[in-house]
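Exam revision sheet. Question 4 asks you to relate a sequence to its structure. Input first:
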Amino acid sequence: MLSRRVLKYLNLGIAAALILLLFCTYWFGWRPLPQTEGMVRAPIGARATVARDSLGVPHIAAASVDDALFLQGYVTAQDRLFQMDAMRRLASGELSEVVGAATLESDREARLLRLRRLSEQHRETLSPEDRATMAAYARGVNFFLETHRGRLPLEFTLLRYDPRPWTVADSIAIALQMFHTLTRSWKAEKRKHDMLEGGERVKVDSLFPVDGGGTFVPGSNAWAVSGTRTATGRPLLASDPHLEYSFPSAWYMVHLKAPGLNVSGVSVPGLPGVLIGHNERIAWGITNLPFDVQDLYFEKLDLRTGRYAFRGREEQARPERESVRVKGGRAVEMLIWVTRHGPVFLQEGNRTFTLRWIAAEPGFFQYPFLDIDRATNWREFRSALSRFAGPGSNFVYADAEGNIGYKAAGKFPIRRKYRGDEPVDGSSGEFEWEGFIPFEELPWVLNPASGIIVSANQNPFPDGYPHPVSAIFAAPYRARRIRARLETRRDWRIADMLQLQMDVYSPADHFISRQVVEAHGHRGMKGGAIAEAVSLLRDWDGQMSTGPAPMIAALVREHLETAVADRACPGKGLIYEHETSPAVLERLLRERPKDWFGDYDQLLLRSLADAMEEGQRIQGRDLRKWDYGRYNRVFLPNPVAGRLPLVGRYLHVGPAPMSGSPTTVKQITRRHAPSMRMVIDFSDLDRSVQNIAIGQSGQVLSRHYRDQWDAYYRGYSFPMQFRRVEAGEILTFLPEAK
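Answer key, structure tokens:
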């Protein structure tokens, strides 16, 4: 009798727990999902619709551009509100307020960069048109907030806070944060400075080429081919920007339609308009043009008073006080001195460094993307780009008339007396910017005879360019590989372009591996694990995909890079990092200067031995079981919901084995990867394809939470619906009753 009673209560307890679980799942997970059908009264001028296709992409049709932007803000908040709030907090240095001390260093850096203060300053100097664009978007976000306060996404419940209203300054802050992500040359300057202390000047300089600053920046690909090289006789444009891994995806797909506006592509959550995409007449892709727009100055500054020297005079720095709130802890107070060059950014021993950054220049920020979205030809496109200040970008273009083009855009400082690749004396006044390169003098091309335009972060500035160039350009491997493959055919189709975006041949790793094989042959060594590794490299085709050979090649390159850097600066080889380092290694191995190494075969075989030792530590002693995919795997954690007990681990993406490397067209590192893939076909815009990395929605119970991951991972894509939209759900918006 007692056991039956215990069993009864146990079953009741399990049932109650199950009911509670189901209720919580509904209340906190299902209930916040966006409304995608029915009718909503909203503060808009006329009736509008949002039709969502099978991927959850909103196709917005409105009676005015203002209404379309309002609805863009609304639908983006429906799917990505927590991501938007986290991004503005990241930019403003306010993550610790809701997360705790774990994000304190990130908040400190954001405050030192003054991103929130800069966004508020730039808001005041926006043109009326740009302000109206951002204000319409902000109204849409806030309308969603006002009408959904009791059913916000799960993350707000887990972190126990409500988001504040959205502002124009919030959108600017997100733009500045993205700019900061793409322009961190100050780290390169500091790295080179550290290596010069105890290093050989000539050798260290060679590790940081004149046209390169020396830190890793996200790479991207964009190319266009004219109708002379396509199966349809009409241009094709491909774009796959590479960014830091993020969850949800860095991009949000959207289609905006209003009088004078019909544009489709990707936006950044928190920013209005389409940043990469196409309209009825033109298409464009973007890659990072990593011109150096930051300088570190070491200052003669008294940190107690803020007095500092400049050109023999004493000047007063401006004090700015910051208070970083920390959840569960005391606020951290900061005093930041701001000089004519910028804020005191680093302190090391007796050295005080300030940072000058183009984004802090008065009147810097403009937002021309709505003009780009409405451009109908090359002339209007260029005119819109003339207002683009940064981050420095390569814009690849194609249009319905059959034209293809390229234009560099952004504000780039002119340096006459220094390169900008290491810190300089701020007190002398000898190292000041002398204005900015005029937009008209930035590189461009229209309809080249080859019928091919390729941008892969390589140097676009020609020999004899009239202005000094200091940048962190990528090694030319990706650009050369793309161009070489495009030149082989005149019948390119969309599927072929997608295949090219997934190309994982590494000429850099293939070259180094052949050098290792030759070095082993010169030594006449036989037997053992080294010989087995050499045999695998000898038969390897340079594809950074699966198996042991690409893993051996990658490890050899990394150890070779460390050994070369350690030769230039003994004991500091591990701090070296440079976007063009594979090209530096190739040049060194081809030329083999005696003042670097006396025996290059020994250098290569020692790097191979070190690589073997590391590989055995990672994946065991059986070389044949090594796999590059496992070594190069990607893991995308859900930063908040992923911490839930029991279910959290099912909300992540990965770990997944990944092909590609830093020097392949499909550029993959442990931090960066293609963030979106797009191919535009001007023979029929509805045949164009596009996909992002994970899914449209950041909400864990949405069917669009990660429904694009498989396509992204395997390299296929989805129709980019434009003229023919197959709407699964339609939400109608009506003006509020007066």
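Marking note for examiners. The mean pLDDT is 92.
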